[in-house]
């Protein structure tokens, strides 16, 4: 290729680049205060806590226990929606202290996987008899 052709290719490539980059919108950024950031994180944390408690209430055993105690699950949902952030944190910490059998399925699953791996490695003979 001659030098004139190379120059024209470079020129048109640069021209396209400048035309396209000039038409793109620029990014806009602004400073936010620390107070605004903290409030935003608190709101996200509060909503995550509220969602975690709602998830716990949707479990069948919890719903059955609420009904047994005479509490309508829909009313419990309304009361959770009305809790303040401090009350939500307190409720979440109390639920975490009293798991009431939480994690049984995970323990059984992990035990099964360990036994399966040990059986595949030939250390045990658990599943070969089945």
Defining key terms:
flat; 6 helices; mainly alpha; 130 residues; single chain; 72% helix
Which stretches are poorly predicted, pLDDT < 50 over at least 5 residues? none
Helicity, in percent?
over 70%
What does the average pLDDT come to?
Answer: 77
Helix-strand pattern: HHHHHH
Strand content bin: under 5%
Largest sheet: none
- Envelope shape: flat
User: Number of DSSP helices?
Assistant: 6
- Rounded to an integer, what's the Rg over CA atoms? 30 Å
Structural class: mainly alpha
Terminal CA distance reads 75 Å
Number of strands: 0
Folded structure, characterized:
With 130 residues, the protein is mainly α. The chain has 6 helices and no strands. The chain has helices at residues 3-23, 34-57, 60-68, 73-82, 85-97, 104-120. Helix 2 packs antiparallel against helix 4 (73-82). The termini are far apart. The model has no long low-confidence stretch (mean pLDDT 77).
Question: Helices and strands in order, then pairings?
Answer:
Layout: H1 3-23, H2 34-57, H3 60-68, H4 73-82, H5 85-97, H6 104-120
In short:
The protein is built from six helices and no strands.
